[in-house]
Amino acid sequence: MNDLVALFLSKLGMASLFLTVTGVVALVALRAIRCSSPLVHRVTWCIVLAQGVLFVQLPLQIPWDVPTVFTPTSRVAISADEIAVVTPAMQLLETNTPNNRVNSSQTFAIENNWANLLCLVWVGGIVIILGRWMVGYAIFVRNIESQPCDREEWCNEWNELLVTSREANPPTLHVSASVGPILCRLPSGYRVIVPFGLWQDLPSEQRTSILRHELAHFERRDIVKTLAANLLALLHWFNPMAWFASRRFEDSVEWTCDDQVRASEPSSTTNYAKALLAIGEYNRQKSAWSTAVFGGGFADRIRRVLSEERQAMSRTSNGTILGLLVACVALHVFQVELVAQNPEKPKAVSGVSTFHKDFFVVPLKTDFQKWHFKGFTAYANINLISLLDKATENVDVNRFDLDALQEALKKVTQGDEGKLMLHLDNGTSNMDEKVKAVKVNFEKTAVKSGFNSFHLFETYSATNDRYGLSESNALESDEPQLGNEQVIVFPIRTPLSRTVISGWSAEQVNCYIETSETVSLDSNDLLTDSDKDVIRQAAVKMTIPDKGVVKIQIHLQKPKTTVEISGLAQMKMDSLYHRDPTEFLKSLGFKKVIIAVNCDSVVYLSTYE
User: Fold this and answer.
1) Who contacts 591 (Cβ-Cβ below 8 Å, separation ≥6)?
2) What per-residue confidence (pLDDT) applies to 106?
3) N or C: which end of the chain has fewer CB within 10 A?
4) For residue range 373-398, what is the model confidence (pLDDT) as tens digits?
5) Cα separation, 68 vs 346, whole angstroms
6) Facing residues of 388 across strands?
7) Helix (H, G, I), strand (E, B), or coil: what is residue 389?
8) Does the CA dihedral 231-235-239-242 come out positive or negative?
9) Number of H helices, E strands in the chain
10) Is the four-CA dihedral 406, 407, 410, 411 of positive or negative sign?
11) Phi, psi dihedral angles at 355 (to 5 degrees)
């Protein structure tokens, strides 16, 4: 029993420690990003409080190589004076001496007494706080003096709000001499209590906004949520961060209801702020079992309500906060264990794609990639911008890890059939001469890696962006060739294919269509009825994602005269030629259509959303 108490207290202390660390991380992250979203705040502080009940740790074994100094073949010279060898017999002899037996038993008793005492203090603190809450609630219920509202105007205001509510048993409106405005849960049910003196001084618009706020609390079950947050904090009543997290959770609940009032009546924002100010001056009552309209951070709430601007939180910002919190949870839940591995056992190679800070190498596996790169078996992208020192404009070609590139290329070579597409990203044209020497090294490396041929091409993107490719991307998704010989349709599902077909831009194309037949200048349509039938059948075979993007490549007949190609109606955006394929593709479920018309190697892109 004593061992269980000690184990529980250690788990409780560890949970409280991680609750504190996660709370500090959350507070810093929210302030650094200047997050104003009530949802993000609410989820954040829920995760912080949840740390306090994570008492279970899961083992996570990570293999590691034993250092060479510990291998059997190693020889380490150590002086006999430097080592004291302790045999099991000596250990047994030392622990069984009379003095040691007494000291050990005394130490064991003292440790268990401390554990029992601490456990009693912890339980006593919970009992005292729960007792205070229950006594306070009983006093509140006993002393509250409220009567059902009999003012016709006030009742009409409340009933008009209930018309829009879907609640079967809404709270009743009561009037008190001193309490409110407040939503509370009494033994007889939920009540919205308003103070008579304040209520008769407020205009109708301000009263309605406050009632809408309280109704939002009821519809969202905020009393139950707030009680749950306080109970989680109660387990760590000795930790100030637990109560801080609970209060911040309550603040986010208040913000949410404030925003609902603003959204329902945008024009009444000023009236709502005035009502809050009047309530703050009249009464600032708070309780742990109810959610009052004048919750924590009262001055901040008024400023927030009056603020017309709302910071738009990007997915990156939300992902940053969530990622930090998930990392804290992972560190808490998973107990990392290093498992020694046999150093002579060869390491298994996971996959053939390689991602390096200066390059990435991927095999060309999908039907689309093989079709687009025609005959090539692998693709390599070299980020030469990383060799450029922006401050001095100098290029240090010696820092490039050619050995790592060679090892990566060996993973994707196919012997005599291997053919490499080597893409060099120079960033700017003024780097051509500076990287000329290293280009020769890339060619030699490709040959040494086993490729029988390769093609090198260069671009100038002036960016360090790796076109959205990373180790976490799925590079082996299926991209089958659909359609027929006249109309080719490919679902685009890998980042490499999407990057290639998007022209190295950020466009997230989900489907690529190309017509092999040249469209005559005399034709009235860019797509024939037979083309549409093929595309329609292909679309049935693949899943079109929500807000999917399709790019269609059409080849137009070259004009016989010297007419400017840009003047052709088939090349112009919003022309009748473009409207028909755009409407057709959108009818299949695509939200954005990109039409690329190619005439004598001149391509015009038009985007329709």
Assistant:
1) 546, 547, 548, 549, 609
2) 46
3) N
4) 888 888 888 877 777 766 666 776 67
5) 15
6) 395
7) strand
8) negative
9) 18, 20
10) negative
11) -125, 120
Check: CB of residue 423 under 8 Å from CB of residue 457.
yes
Residue type present at position 551: K
What residues contact residue 40 under an 8 Å CB cut-off, 6+ apart?
30, 313, 318, 321
Token pair belonging to 324: 């930090």
The letter for the amino acid at 157 is E
Q: Among residues of the chain, what percentage have pLDDT more than 90?
A: 22
- Judged against a pLDDT cut of 60, whether residue 457 lies above it is answered with yes
Q: What are phi and psi of 184, to 5 degrees?
A: -135, 155
Cα 492 from Cα 512, distance rounded (Å) = 7
CA distance 82 to 115: 39
CA distance 466 to 381: 9
Whether the Cβ atoms of residue 206 and residue 233 lie closer than 8 Å to each other: no
User: 127-135: long-range contacts (C-beta < 8 A, 24 or more apart)?
Assistant: 129/234, 129/237, 130/234, 133/288, 133/289
Residue 171 is predicted with a pLDDT of 92
Average pLDDT (306-318) is 59
State which amino acid sits at residue 22: T
* Residue appearing with tokens 């601007």: 309
For the stretch 384-419, what's the b/e string if a residue is b when 16 or more beta carbons lie within 10 angstroms of its beta carbon? Answer: bbbbbeeeeeebeeeebeeeebeebbbbbbeeeebb
Contact 470, 355 (CB under 8 A): yes
383 contact partners, CB below 8 Å, separation of at least 6: 358, 359, 425, 464, 466
Distance between CA atoms of 113 and 120, rounded to whole angstroms?
Answer: 11
What phi and psi, each to the nearest 5 degrees, are found at residue 202? Answer: -85, 140
Name the average pLDDT for the chain. 77
Rg (CA), the chain: 35
The two three-digit tokens of residue 90, written as one number? 């000596």
Q: Quote the DSSP letter at residue 459.
A: E
Interval 136-149: pLDDT, tens: 999 988 888 889 99
DSSP-derived pairing of the beta strands 58-65 and 189-195: unpaired
DSSP 346: P
CA atoms of 88 and 92, how far apart (whole Å): 6
Provide the H-helix boundaries in 186-314. 196-201, 204-219, 222-234, 240-264, 269-282, 298-306
Give the full edge-to-edge strand order of the sheet including 146-148.
146-148, 172-176, 189-195, 182-186, 291-292
Residues 50-107 have pLDDT tens digits of 998 887 766 665 665 544 333 333 333 333 333 333 333 333 333 344 444 334 444 4
Which amino acid, one-letter code, is at 491? P
Q: How confident is the model at residue 128 (pLDDT cuts 50, 70, 90)?
A: very high
CB 461 within 8 Å of CB 504:
yes
Sheet holding 592-599, edge to edge: 482-483, 487-491, 511-515, 549-555, 592-599, 602-608
> Is residue 286 scored above 70 in pLDDT?
no
SS3 of residue 77 by DSSP: coil
DSSP 288: S
* pLDDT in the model for residue 19: 93
Side chain identity at residue 606, one-letter code: S
